Fold:
Amino acid sequence: MLDKVVFFLHVIRAGSLSIAAKQYGISPSAGSRWLNELEENMGVSLVKRTTRKISPTQAGQRLFDRFNQIHGQINEVFDEVQNLSHEDRGTIRIASTPLFAKHYLATIIGEYVQIHPDINFLVIETAFDVDHTHEVDFAVRANATYRGFQDKDSLLVKRALLQEPLIACCSPDYIKQFGELSTHWSSNNTSAYMPPP
Structure:
């Protein structure tokens, strides 16, 4: 139905079925059949045919007026979407911890830019939380989690990327001076204790 309505718009603009058929890429006989089927489906006569020209009826003029504007908007939407599909451009702003930026982000951005050369990246290296969604598009954080840990409220949508174990360590000189670390077990958690330096 939509194809037939769009063809009808071509007919009214051209004032000729054969010219409209040529513009639309179909034969005049197919165009005539489309118009007849459109009129049958809508239950109303849409065009007045003469040997010289085709003109709209009152119903046809109403259909033309309403769909002509919509057709232009549809074409604009199609063009906009198609341009986005093969011309990604703009700036992506990322706040990241320095270690993640160094060991992961540089490689990820490099691979992405090879595919989408018109995309720019602004990387803000910070160990602090960035909650202002209007300032960045993505924020990479590192959180030390343990039982009972309560993360603060945030407007950001969160997704875990990776996990790394937390290890308490010290230098051999520290052990020589203060002794090896001892582990204290309790019903709630496990923690390592070191004497103060």
Q: What stands out?
A: The chain has six helices and seven strands.
